[in-house]
Amino acid sequence: MKIVAYLLLMFLTACMNAPIEQKQPSKACLEYQQMMTAPMPREAMQKLQKKCLESKE
User: Which residue pairs from 19-28 have beta carbons closer than 8 angstroms and sit at least 24 positions apart in sequence?
Assistant: First the structure.
């Protein structure tokens, strides 16, 4: 029983110490998000969206 408790404690400790990655949006995605509500031609909006998707790769 002590072994199970010890293993559980080790598992929880390892999970708590795992680094959390927080990805920042790229400049292209920020620009796309800012322009989503702006009145602009559909082609221009699609171009911004494409740049955003390409920057994620």
Answer: 26/52, 26/55, 26/56, 27/55, 28/52, 28/54, 28/55
Q: Coil, strand, or helix at residue 19?
A: coil
| CA torsion through residues 32, 57, 23, 9, sign | positive
Q: Is the pTM of this model over 0.85?
A: no
Q: What is the pLDDT of residue 15?
A: 61
Position 17 scores a pLDDT of: 63
Query: Do residues 28 and 52 lie in contact, with contact meaning Cβ atoms separated by under 8 Å?
Result: yes
Alpha helices in 1-57 (DSSP H): 2-17, 27-35, 42-56
Taking residues 29-48, what's their average pLDDT? 90
